[in-house]
Specification:
heterotrimer; A mainly alpha (104); B mainly alpha (175); C mainly alpha (634); A: 104 residues; mainly alpha; Helix Hairpins; 3 helices; 0% strand; C: 634 residues; 26 helices
């Protein structure tokens, strides 16, 4: 039997999501921006798994979805790092502020 | 002291793990060396994995440890080493953008918490979601019976991202 | 018949186009093609004249709709009535002679093809102007005539005086054109049509009015505005200053401008709108007095001018004044009759003067002439015929027409106008014979020039002789002997009431006085300049008056001090307003948006995180609204 309060789990996920969001919007380093995004995805996974077990109609779909989410996150991080590497080769920097070719 | 909130062990563990996760997350925000940030990040991921195990999602928890805490964190390390491994976040200075981000994040969090608090969460009976199998077996059966096509599509996505990542990160000779 | 009328202006246009495009061909080709192509125009014009004569009161009209609006339509086409037919004859006939003469005068000029294409365009414009069925089309060709005049006066544009004179003629006539255009628009709005034949009918029925301007005032205002246009074009006081300066153009051009194409347009306009003018007493009085004062004023200036062409130019101004005077006192037929005779003797005087100038290698200074009678007998006798006609000596053309005008003024009992005209007639006779004596009589004052003087060949003498014959006999078209043929021809369609018989049949008193005055003028000129005495010393008592006339009554100076300075001051003011107010305002508007852009620019940093922050703030706002307002959570 699981006795964890649902609201606390969801609150944890919400707070983690907001921290990740803040990090993604303020971190100077491209890698850290990616890491922050991963944290937001993690928060979402917590929600998925929580509802899979403690939702109104518990079933395995939530967990399967979390697995897909993790897979997509892995794929995303792989492409993301590849982009960071290419960017670093081009600009000799991993700073977000140097990725400003939209302006130029 | 009133320990009514901790009358069950899993609740106690949950709060401890939540504390670890939040502390790690806040530390990640505060560290200035990139490498420390990644380590703090690993803490968050491991905490999440513990939460999943607590929730009875054994397979997802193990996958979380292997993919996030293992593969992604290590990949980040590699990325940092391959780029500017001395990278240091500059002295935190308040800017308009940062202030707006903070306000936005805090307000968003507050709204979400208010909504969570004000909602009555119905908890269903989740004891039989594994249909009597072990959790990994149940998920495996579900994946291959119910979600065959999404599963194959995700594998294709992984393949494409693998090839794409190699292509993007490849050193260009012609430049 | 109307097709014939349509063809009349098209021949010179064709010649002009040919001359314009085949510039490599020799000058003789351009002269020949221009003259040959104008011959059918002359023939058709005469056929039309005879046709209109055979059908009194006929109006040939052929129009096609050009712009049709629900409430308004503009037509283009042609219209021939008695006045038009007469004008066609005058214009084509004088033009063909000028075309011939031009070749002799400008034989060596390199830009002869351009000259002939301008000249043909000039004639085409004037013919089209005359044929216009409505005022809008007339205005179009009115401006084209002005343009051609500008081009031809400035034909020797390398000379700064010529360029200046061309500009001056354009600008000064433009003042009048503005008035004309305003008048046309006023009438167009009031009548709902530009068809000017309807105006006088509407005016007589009292329906020519605008909501804010009742009929008598509207007619007066509109006719005065139109008259301003005629004043500019026909070089009447106070817009006469451009015409003497226009002498910078080639002399045949002056002949054309003064006799047929340019200045006649103003008189033609007034004559054309005569029925409407007649509805307004005020306008008629203004026209008469402007004409009379101009006639006297210009003839006084002409007395002392040193330049042979300028004398004749002021004489044109003066004679046009006579025509306006005639129209102003209601002697419509007499005014047009004077236009008719004047076209011949003025073209003759200019061409003869051109012959003299050509013979003397380009000099126009009377002080360097003299004694040319034996050297250039044809020029002399034709010039003499022109001078006699201008002076109004029996039986030359000018006698009949000028006397008819003075007789009409006398019969009307308007003694001020009559006296002004009479004094002007005296001055006219004096100044033109001063030119005759100074040019042809006595001993040559410049032996070198005199020695090389010669007649200009047949292309120059034939036009002179033809015009000389017309200057002598053209007046007989409208004498009591043939019962005022031209007056009957013209008034069959035009003037509402026939001319009173009192002066149309042998106004002997008036004739005698005019003749006597003319002879006195000639006599004075002979006494002062005859017998080879040349320039006389002016008695000291007359010195200031002499200087006044010599300096053209300082009109140019006055204009330069008032109008030109004033215009420049105004322009400077407008410039200031434009530069600091208007431009300031536009700059302010620009600055406003520049500022906004500058502020918004900071949002476009190119930093993905900034955009993310915007998205976050927007999301939060939506979420807050959704939760607290729509969702009803609290």
């Amino acid at each position: 039997m699981i006795h964890m309060p649902v609201a606390s789990l969801l609150a944890l996920a919400a707070v983690l999501f907001c921290i990740g969001l803040y990090g993604a919007l303020t971190k100077r380093n491209l890698i850290m921006v990616l890491v922050s995004i991963e944290m937001m995805l993690s928060a979402v996974n917590i929600n998925l798994v929580t509802f899979s077990r403690l939702g109104a109609a518990p079933n395995l779909t939530g967990q399967v979805f979390a697995l897909f989410s993790i897979t997509v996150a892995a794929a995303e991080i792989a492409v993301g790092f590849a982009l960071v590497l290419a960017f670093f080769r081009l600009r000799k920097s991993t700073e977000v502020k140097d990725a400003d070719s939209q302006k130029k | 002291m009133n320990f009514s909130a901790f009358e069950h062990l899993d609740t106690l563990v949950f709060y401890l793990v939540s504390l670890v996760i939040l502390v790690c997350a806040v530390m990640m925000l505060n560290f200035r060396k990139v490498i420390y940030m990644v380590l703090a990040m690993g803490g968050v991921f491991v905490g999440c994995a513990v939460l999943f195990l607590l929730l009875g999602a054994d397979f997802v928890g193990i996958a979380q440890v292997m993919i996030y805490a293992g593969a992604i964190t290590i990949l980040m390390m590699f990325a940092i080493m391959l780029t500017n491994h001395e990278a240091v976040e500059p002295e935190a200075r308040w800017s308009l953008q940062k202030a707006f981000s903070a306000i936005g994040a805090v307000v968003l969090g507050a709204v979400l918490l208010l909504v969570i608090r004000s909602t009555h969460w119905v908890v269903g009976d989740g004891r039989h979601i594994n249909h009597g199998y072990a959790n990994p077996v149940a998920i495996g059966l579900d994946l291959f019976r119910e979600y065959t096509i999404p599963f194959e599509l995700v594998s294709l996505l992984l393949l494409v991202s693998l090839v794409g990542a190699v292509l993007i990160a490849r050193e260009r000779k012609e430049d | 018949m109307s097709m014939l009328a349509l063809l009349v202006p098209l021949f010179p246009l064709l010649a002009g186009v040919i001359s314009f495009f085949f510039r490599r061909l020799p000058g003789a080709f351009h002269a020949t093609i221009s003259v040959v192509l104008l011959i059918p125009s002359v023939v058709f014009a005469i056929v039309l004249f005879l046709y209109v004569h055979a059908h009194p009161g006929v109006v040939l009209r052929q129009v096609i709709p050009w712009l049709v609006l629900p409430s308004f339509s503009i037509h283009v086409g042609i219209q021939v009535n008695a006045l038009t037919a007469l004008m066609l004859v005058i214009v084509t006939f004088v033009s063909i002679l000028v075309f011939m003469f031009s070749y002799g005068y400008l034989r060596t000029d390199e830009r002869l093809s351009i000259y002939y294409s301008y000249l043909n365009l000039f004639v085409f414009s004037m013919l089209a102007l005359v044929l216009s069925p409505n005022l809008l089309q007339l205005y179009l060709f009115w401006e084209m005539v002005g343009l051609c005049s500008y081009l031809l006066v400035g034909y020797w544009f390398a000379k700064p005086e010529a360029a200046r004179a061309a500009r001056k003629s354009f600008v000064v006539t433009r003042i009048g054109d503005a008035g004309l255009f305003a008048g046309i628009l006023l009438l167009g709005f009031a009548a709902g049509t530009f068809n000017d034949a309807d105006y006088s009918i509407l005016a007589r029925h009292g329906t020519l009015a605008l909501p804010w301007l009742s009929e008598p005032y509207l007619v007066t205002l509109a006719t005065l505005l139109i008259f301003i246009g005629a004043v500019g074009k026909s070089a009447q006081l106070p817009l006469h200053v451009w015409l003497p300066d226009a002498m910078e153009g080639p002399t045949p051009v002056s002949a054309l401008i003064h006799a047929a194409t340019m200045v006649a347009a103003g008189v033609y306009l007034v004559a054309r709108e005569f029925p409407l003018f007649a509805e307004s007493h005020v306008t008629m009085t203004v026209v008469a007095y402007v004409g009379a004062v101009t006639a006297l004023f210009a003839s006084l200036i002409a007395i002392t001018q040193q330049d042979i062409k300028r004398v004749i130019a002021y004489s044109t101004v003066s004679q046009l004044g006579y025509m306006m005077l005639a129209l102003g006192i209601g002697a419509y037929a007499d005014g047009v009759f004077h236009l008719f005779t004047h076209a011949f003797f003025k073209a003759l005087l200019f061409l003869a003067a051109g012959s003299v100038i050509h013979a003397l290698g380009g000099t126009q200074d009377l002080a360097l002439m003299g004694g040319l009678r034996r050297k250039m007998p044809i020029t002399f006798y034709t010039f003499l015929a022109g001078a006699l006609a201008l002076s109004g000596i029996f039986p030359f053309a000018g006698f009949w027409s000028k006397d008819a005008i003075l007789g009409a003024a006398m019969a009307k009992g308007d003694w001020v106008l009559y006296l002004l005209g009479l004094i002007a007639a005296f001055c006219t006779a004096f100044y033109i014979f001063r030119v005759v004596f100074l040019t042809f009589a006595g001993a040559p004052r410049d032996e070198d020039l005199h020695a090389h003087a010669h007649e200009g060949g047949w292309v120059m003498t034939v036009p002179l002789v033809i015009l000389g014959l017309f200057a002598t006999f053209a007046g007989f078209i409208n004498t009591p002997w043939n019962d005022d043929f031209l007056s009957r021809f013209l008034t069959a369609t035009k003037t509402p009431k026939p001319i009173p018989a009192s002066y149309s049949h042998w106004p002997l008193t008036s004739m005698a006085i005019s003749l006597a005055v003319g002879l006195c003028g000639i006599g004075l000129a002979a006494w002062m300049y005859g017998g080879g005495k040349g320039f006389r010393k002016v008695p000291s008592a007359f010195k200031p008056w002499y200087a006044l006339s010599r300096n053209k009554f300082y009109v140019d100076e006055v204009y330069s001090w008032t109008v030109v300075r004033g215009g420049k001051l105004l322009a400077a003011l407008v410039d200031l307003v434009d530069r600091y107010l208007i431009e300031g305002l536009t700059r302010l508007v620009g600055l406003f948006f520049y500022g906004i852009g500058n502020v918004l620019r900071y949002t476009q940093t190119g930093q993905i995180q900034t955009y993310g922050t915007f998205a976050l703030v927007g999301l939060v706002v939506f979420l807050v609204v959704a939760v607290f307002r729509v969702g009803g959570v609290f």
